[in-house]
Amino acid sequence: MPTPAAVTTSPTVEEGGVHTVLVVDDEPTARMALAARLKRLGYRVIEAGDGKVGLEVLRRERPDLTILDWMMPEMDGPSFCEQVRQDPALLSSQILMMTSHDQPQQIAEGLARGADDFLSKAASKYEITARVQAGMRTATLIRRLEDVTEEIRRKQEVLERELQSAARYVESLLPAPGTLLPGVQMVHVYRPSLGLGGDLFNVVPWNDDVLGLYLLDASGHGVSSALRSASFSTFLRRENLLHHVGSSDPGAILTEANRLFPLTEDGNYFTIIFARLDVRARTLSYATAGHNGALLHRRSGEVCWMAKPNLPLGFDQSTTYLTEELTIEQGDRLYVLSDGLYEVPASNGELWGQDRLEKTVRAFGDCPLSEVVSGTIAEVIRWQGHEHFPDDVALMGIELTEKDFHERSSEP
Questions:
Q1: Residue 287: other Cβ atoms inside 10 A
Q2: Segment 243-257, tens digit of pLDDT
Q3: Domain that holds residue 26
Q4: Is 164 a member of any domain?
Q5: pLDDT tens for residues 18-27?
Q6: Is the Cβ–Cβ distance between 398 and 277 less than 8 Å?
Q7: Considering the domain boundaries, does residue 300 fall inside one?
Q8: Is the domain of 133 the same as that of 178?
């Protein structure tokens, strides 16, 4: 059986360095004649005497173009092409099939089995040059595309690591679940989207009887939105609120925040709900700015949505946000949530919606708060059919436990 000839190189005449051609032909005379012509054109040429050896050389050398005879022992040209197209590492290889078969059905068979172009063994030197140059142009474009794709993949990996890092930072700002005050328990779930948004929630301990809590959302997605929310959360710390606002009144806090955080040059803004829970007075005071994600599920079964039509922060600095107040009793539960929870779409595009959210909360009834929160998230996942949320999802549940809350609120 003929063996591959030694690799011979010559200076290239094409941009981008020496281009390599693999010639696979079991006829030594035809193979060497074609190789000589290609070398005169400035290509680096590798020769193989049959399809099996040629496939091994292709895997090892990764030439820019393979010129392949149809009729060969061990492995013919079409079988060679099929092997190449089944190998992900070789899939993009450019193959120019040489053949004396010039019937349309034979050419169609070769193309169907993986050849990119054909070259007649009777072709003139001008056609050979033109076919090879066309194959090289295609190979060069494919290599460039592969390089760009690989660069995009590397950048995507870096971006995903940055998003994961940002998500971990945002999660580090969230409150620890458990007892917030005697008689007040909290459970929460935070599920950042793949794009990372700006949802952030936390608690503000005012004193032994009063607790502040909020959920804010920066418009847009990505690290920028998340970091804007983190920056806003600094303003919402107890000492800063006392300095800038001088009280724990939710409406006054949002009115001052509206002044301090105007629309950005790109039109970005915040929505927020800020609530104040007074255990001794048995009141829940709150103010909202473009945020509709809070509901009070009373022990009696009544559900009260805490939503008022008003502007998000930053649109009009003259806006005054007003405080609303509700009475609370032992056994009541407050749910504060992001719009990403009820705006989750099903496969047909239909949103889960606030009505389904309310029905889910009602259906759980007086189950442990942790079961309500985790079960609600599970129901949303079932609705959309997968685990990955298109927007950040945050759900904070606060329960006024019976014994401790009753004793605390009845103290003189």
A1: 26
A2: 999 999 999 999 999
A3: 20-148
A4: no
A5: 899 999 999 9
A6: yes
A7: yes
A8: no
